[in-house]
Structures are given as structure tokens and as C-alpha cells.
């Protein structure tokens, strides 16, 4: 039997029509929710005028992007953004995977679940409140650390909110504290999904727990680790605004180590409220992330086609 | 069998979609219904006008008041009003979104503090000169041409200021019990320097109480000290010295002599412990610090009746010490106005409603104080008070945002002559020569965004004394210049010169 | 199978310490809501405040209609949003996980691209308000967050493609099972852990969402719990950093006190903590593959 190309394609579609049907709801949603508004990126290149609307406003080239590179701080905010987020991706992945593996090792289901619940708690607290709690710890006069911890160690009180050198550590701790409980659930799900037969076979062969973790658990959850990392790399120019703005309480002297692109854009535009300039910032952040993730994805795909994003 | 399962799933998906859609329809039609109440198909029906204003808390009884207001507006101008409170933190964003869309919006509160000039430049507001001629009798009888002029941009009025304090004098408020305890003669305190011995007395005699704080992180001690020395021309990027009494020369505020002097004083006070240690990161307001017994007083931008207001809000009797003459710049007038939005369905009706807010005392009292008998009761002396036994009345509008406040009843506890005093205060104030000039930042917004970031890094620290000005002020100015402050000042000078020529 | 008793003890020790680090701030928050307002302003937060007060909770109870309504809206939005989001995410994730699916790469890219690029606030707002008229509707709180930009789809896809053995699907297909049957008879039961995970995450996302409310809802009757809380928090922050001249103290007079904000935050967290064990039930390996085959 001979088939034309058209017939072959039709056969394919028929064979997979159920699967295409499954794709449909989400695809329709994404087209409407995400792709239709994308024509709006032109706002980044326009002097938006409310009377003229998006299409009628004047083109102004790259003028909306200028403020991002205008100050001497442009370098600092880019550096802070990349260093913090790059480090967070690494640290959060390692810690979340570790915690997930440890949770999986616990014999009593009750305790395992109790720990899971409790370490998820910080994720549920609004960052503004975290900022208040941080203040109650770090307050100069009556903060918990200056009042109780430092005197015990014989150290003089520290003016936490005006000394920028401590903040890379503080922000890292808050980030870990807040996010690990949430992230580890994803890895825990992946670990639970591993077929028990692998472990049973390894136990019979006399492999130690550590061996099993290294040779079975980690390789088998590698696809999840990879995808989580790739997705995070794509958003490396976006920061957790709450962490960098609310937790340092917008304190000026801390800006050298706490200012990232998101906070810079927020502070610069909060009084202007210019939507052209905010779109420009968003586009810049997306583009850089996009380029990075394409490169990273290419590297992953060369090693293992199946683990790549697309 | 195979098909049956597939059908089940399809139905499931469809049902889900339907549930979602139904939900939307429900609330959608509720909303539509509310909107139609006023609109109606009949031509004789009153026009429904939407009025957006800034809210600072819940207003459960909003609809009751609105309904009462509509009785008046329907009779007088055949229009109804729909009140639209938007919370302050969402305001700028929500205004931009509403204006980008086509949702009906007729009257909105505008303010120099919230982008008035940029709203005009971006086409969000309608010019009002002609409308004012046609329907603005009430407004013109209340607001002098001088005041209306101050709202003009390129010769057109875009907003009608509410009547309130249109000048500012600066000073401090301090707990009365402490003033009495240390037998301070407040009449002898004439300058900020005279305050120092008082602060010392409190510091030495009241452990655990900070002698001086500020209202919030923006109204810093330094800013209040030099408040009457400058016309800040909207923002602080380029100002006029001598309260705008000299020549119209725009200078850098952060390099000027008085600013520098004030920073040194504030730094000394901070180091001596007169200013609260945590002041630059405190999340509490001045009044709440006083209420909790943690602070003795705070610096403030004042007005007639300020002591009563602050005593109410800080829960203790406060004494006001005024240390400057009242001064008026454009900002004092344009800080709260009502404008007609580009999304209006009927600008004529909107203007008529606006005029009523300046001429109809009953309407204005409903809007600002609520319904008589429910939200307030009239006393024999003509003052009003909360009904007996009621603490939270369910309606509370920050009246200074809108309309002619001088039409409103005076609350018991306030000075019965408060409005007359306010008028006298406004008239007696020193007027800046640049009164009426509004800076349009649109052409230098790149620089504004960059400079704002630098400002945020240093200002609060320096102006509260937390940072040492010796070292940081130079850095601050160098960074401001690198971010483009000079260009902003030049642009401002250019616009000011043009303005001076045509006025 | 599992680690030795000593290792077990060490693991428990680790988690007890971690749990303390996570519980302490929450306790602090809870105690703050029970502290007298003036004590908070004067002395800051403390686990054992010098003066207790139930003022915050009586305030919230006095205005219980707001609280109950916003709670109801949050619950409704969370349930519908989670169910719908999970349904359409897993439906698309399955074909994308199938290596033989035509156009798999293109479709994955289409999903992934939405994670990085969006039209920005204004065009999205115009679409929802001008075309779909969702402003001030419950739907505006549900629809924009349904897929959280494809993130969850990619996570589910990865789980499907790593944890569901291809031979199982193939043999089922040869046995004449339809794709839909394979999906919900074989794939879903084997994927309970990821379904529970994504369900939980969607639930948290909906429960904690205030952004859509901020953008699409101005009618206070439709405010969710987090909207109410967030409005208080951002208002006070705005007033801290912006000057209202002589009216400054009037602007803050009506904003609820610290203790009330803390109480709101606390009662906003508790329901999720109650719901979590329900999801944890599914954090076990699904039916074994043998059972599916048989």
C-alpha cells in the first residue's frame, strides 16, 4: 500500500488525536492568557500615551531602557542579581535534594509528615511579615540578636540595617529558610516515584545506603533536578522581590549588597509609574534569561536528549 | 466502552469550563446590574458618574451614604454618583490600568504627590478651563484665581484643589505632660536650635523615651527643619532657596548651605541620643511611638488645629511648637485635587458634580461625615459628634482629599472657628514666586528614575542623623550627579524660565 | 531497606533542629498577635510578652462579616482553581511526556516560552477586562493563575516521562485501551505523588495570591483573605515612605494595628497547615506496576 505525505500526516493525526485533544485545553489557555498579550511588548519601545493607546503612541526606540544602565549602580545591581540567584539555584537544589532524601529515609511516616509540614511553614508567611520578624531579630535597640545572643558571646551590638556586609549571609539564610520546605516536596515526589525494585536489588547486592543514594536515587531524580535548574536559570534575572525589598526594610545603606534589578526598577518607577519603562525592564530580564536557558538547554541536550526542556 | 469513557471525560472538562464560566457570569451580572442601576436605557434617567478617591481603611457603609448623596445629585443635576474607594498602595497602578482601559471613570483624586504632571503629559486628564467657565460658579466663588492658577499646566486647569491648608508651617509636637513636668516655656522656643535644651531635659529625665522621632520615614527631621526655607518645585531635584522669595534660580537642594547645616545639627542630635536609634528602619509612625510611650514628640508639617489632630491620633495631649512662618508653594495647593478623567462618559455632568462639591453643604457633609443620626449627631453648639456609644461608625472619609471642606460641620473637640483660622492661615502665608509652576518630568524621566534610586540609598540615613554627613554627603552628591541630577536641574530651570515669561 | 538506628537518630536530630528554626518565627508571629499593641511598639515581639491582649481577635470578630466573606472567597477560588489547574496541567503534560508524540518539541517549547516572556501587565489587563470583562469578578481571581505559566506542566511532564515505564503504556495500547483510559487508569494512579505535589502547590499559590486581586478587583466585597491582609500591609508601607504633609497621622489612623495584621497573617496560614496532611496521604508510591498490569 502506498501513502502520500498527506495521507501519512492524516494517519498520524488520527493515531494521536486523543493526545492532541488532551493538549487542547491548556494550549488554548496559553495562547489566550500568554501569547495574545505578547504583542504588548511594543510598549517597551513606545512613549505610552493613554489617549492614543498602545498602537497610537510614538515610537521612541530604546529610550525606555536607558535608565537601567544609567547609574554607576547598573553594574552593582546586575552583579548582585546574578551572584545571588546563581548561588541560590545551586544552594537550594543541593539542600532541597538532601532534605528530600533524608525525609525519605525516616522510618516513621508520622514523623516524616510532621517534619514536612513544619518546614513548609516559612513558605506560607508573607514576605512583609518576614520583614517584621527579621526586624524583631535584628533591631538595634531591642532585637533578639543584639539583646540576647551577642551579649552572651561578648560582642557589641551591631547596627544590622546600616551595615551592608552582613546582608549576603542574612539574605541567603532567609532564602533557604523560606524556600527549602517547598522545593524539597518536588524532589520528594520524584524520589517516591522511583521503583522500589531498584533498591531491593541493590540491598541484595549489599550496597550501602550511601551507595544507593549515589547510584540510584540521584541519577533517577536527575531529570527533575535538571528541569528545576533550567527553569530557574531562565528566571535568573528576576529576583524574589519580597526577599530583597521587604527583608532589608528598604534600608538605603544596605543597597550595595541588597539592590537587585527588581528592586532598582521598583524604586525608580514607584513615583513615575511609567509603564513603558517597566515593560522595558521586564523585556530585558526575559531576554537575558532566554539566552541563558537556550545555552543551558543545548548543553543538557547534548548530554542527554531526554532531559532537555524541548 | 471506549467511547463512553471518552465521553465522560469530555463532559467532565466541559462541566468544568461551564462551572468556571457560570461563576464569572454570576458575579459579572451582579456587577453589571449595579452599573445599570444608574445608567438605564431611558433617556430621562440620571447619568451615573464614578468618583475614585483614596481610601485608607474599610468603609462598610459606603453604599448607604452613596444612596443619600444620589437623592441630592439627582434632584440638582440629574446625575448619580458611584463612589469608588481605591486603597493608597494600589492607587498609582490602578489609575494607570483603569486609564489604559475604557472603564468608566469620571472624577478622580489627583495629586502632585502622585504624578499629577505626568498624568497630564500622558493624556489621562481632561483640560478644564472651558468647563470651569461654564459650570464652575461655585468653585470660582470659593477658590481664588491665584489658587486655580497654581493648578495650571500650559495654561490649562487640570484639577480643582480641595479647600484645606494650602500652606505649611513646620515645627514639633511634644507630649504636654512632659512639657509641664519640666516646666518648659514653649513661647521661648523660636528656632529648631532652641529645642536642644528641651530634648536634653527629656533625654536625661526620661530613660527609655526617645525625645524626638518623625511621623514616618519620609518626613525626616532634616526635611522639617528646612521645610520653610525652600520651594522644592514638586520634587527635590532642583529647588528655589529663600522660600522662593529671591530670583528664580534652580539650585541643587542637597548641596545648599541650609541643608548642610541642618544635617550637621541632626547628626549631633542623633549621636547625643535625642533622636531614636532605630529611626531609619522603624516601622511605626510617630503618633504610635508616642502612644506606646516610646517617644516624647515628633517633627511635623503643621497647620491650624494640628495639636487637636495629633492629640487624637497619638492618644495623649500634645503641645505644638511652631518654628517657621507658613509658606505656600505650588505643591501645597496641588497636593489634593479632583480631576476629570479621560474615561468620563460626560465631562459636563462631571464638572457639574464637581461644582456641587464646592457649593452644596448637604452633599459635602454627606460625603465627608456620613449620614446625620447614623454616623454623626449634631450637638446644641452646632458641632458634631459620634452618636452615643458608637466607636466605629462604618464611614470615615479623609475629607481633605476632596471638595470644599469649609462647608463641612466641625467635630466636637476641634476649634469651632477652625475653618476661619484655616482661611486666615492660607492668606497670611509667604507665597513662593514660583507659585503656579508645575514641573513636567517627562523629558527627563530616565534621569528621575536613576536619581530616585540614589536618593533612596542616602536620604533617610543622612536626614535622620543615622549616617555621618561628613563623608556621605559628598558621595551622595557625586552619585546624584552621575545619575543625571544636573540634567534635571537644567530642564527645570528651562521650564521655569518659560513659565516666568508667560506669567 | 532503611538507614541504621544511629543514622535514624541523626536524621531526626537534624529535622528537630530544622523544625525549631521554622516554628520559632511562626510562634513569634502568633504571640505578637496576642500582645498588647503598645508593648509591641515599645519592646518589639517576644515569645512571652509582658502584657497579653486579645484586642486583635476581638477586632477581627467584630468585623467578622469581612473576615468570613474573604475566607469564603479564598476557599472557593482555591478549590476551583486547584482542581481546574491540576486537570488541564496533567492533561497536557501526558502527551508531552510521550516520546512518540508528534510535535512534542514544538509544543514543549510553546509551554516553556510562556515561563519567560509575557506581554506585561497592561496588555494582559486589557485582554481580561476589555475582551473578557473579568474586572471585579471571581473569575479574575481564578483564571490568570490556572497554569502559573507552564511551570507545573513541565514538572508533571518530567515525572511522567521518568516514572511511568514505556512498556506498560505500550502493552496497554496493544491490549486495545484508549489513550484516555491509559491516562486515567494507568498514568494517573502511578503518579499520585506528583499529583499531590502539584495540587498542593496550586493550592498554596491560590491561597496566597493577592496579586490578581490587586489588579483585577477594586470591589472590596470580592477581596480574598490575602487581599485584605496585603492591603493593610502595603498601605502601611506606602504611608511610611510617602509624605502626606499635615495629614500624615490621619492617613494612618484607620489602618489596623500591628497586632491585627499579625492575627490576620496567623489565621491565614492555619488552614493550609490543616490541609497539608490530606495531600501527604498521596505521598506514597502509587499502585505498583504489577497491579496495573494485572
Automatic annotation (TrEMBL), chain A:
Stored Gene3D superfamilies: MetI-like
Keywords from the UniProt entry: Cell membrane, Membrane, Transmembrane, Transmembrane helix, Transport
Pfam family, one: BPD_transp_1
Record flagged with keyword Transmembrane helix: yes
Membrane topology, as annotated: Multi-pass membrane protein
Domain ABC transmembrane type-1: 78-296
Subcellular location: Cell membrane
GO BP annotation list: transmembrane transport
One GO term describing the cellular component: plasma membrane
InterPro entries: ABC_transporter_permease, MetI-like, MetI-like_sf
Main location: membrane
Top-level taxon of origin: Bacteria
Membrane-spanning intervals of the chain: 20-45, 82-103, 115-135, 166-195, 216-238, 282-301
PROSITE patterns noted in UniProt: ABC_TM1
Classification via PANTHER family: ABC TRANSPORTER PERMEASE PROTEIN (PTHR30193), LACTOSE TRANSPORT SYSTEM PERMEASE PROTEIN LACF (PTHR30193:SF44)
Family to which the UniProt record says this protein belongs: Belongs to the binding-protein-dependent transport system permease family.
Protein's name in the database: Putative aldouronate transport system permease protein
Lineage: Bacteria, Bacillati, Bacillota, Bacilli, Bacillales
From TrEMBL, chain B:
This protein's record includes keyword Protein transport: no
Record has Nucleus as a keyword: no
InterPro entries in the record: Bact_solute-bd_prot1, DUF3502, SBP
SUPFAM superfamilies for the chain: Periplasmic binding protein-like II (SSF53850)
Gene3D superfamilies in UniProt: Periplasmic binding protein-like II
Domain annotation DUF3502: ranges: 434-501
Domain of life: Bacteria
Signal peptide positions (record): 1-21
Sorted UniProt keywords: Signal
Full protein name: Putative aldouronate transport system substrate-binding protein
UniProtKB/TrEMBL annotation, chain C:
Topology within the bilayer: Multi-pass membrane protein
Cellular component per GO, a single term: plasma membrane
Keyword Coiled coil: no
Residues of the ABC transmembrane type-1 domain: 71-279
Entries under InterPro entries matching the protein: MetI-like, MetI-like_sf
Annotated TM spans: 12-34, 71-94, 106-126, 138-161, 182-207, 260-279
Keywords (A to Z) from UniProt: Cell membrane, Membrane, Transmembrane, Transmembrane helix, Transport
UniProt key word Protein transport: no
GO biological process, one term: transmembrane transport
Pfam families linked to this entry: BPD_transp_1
Domain of life where this protein originates: Bacteria
Subcellular location: Cell membrane
PANTHER family named among the record's database cross-references: ABC TRANSPORTER PERMEASE PROTEIN MG189-RELATED-RELATED, POLYGALACTURONAN_RHAMNOGALACTURONAN TRANSPORT SYSTEM PERMEASE PROTEIN YTCP
Family statement: Belongs to the binding-protein-dependent transport system permease family.
Protein name: Putative aldouronate transport system permease protein
Gene source species: Paenibacillus phyllosphaerae
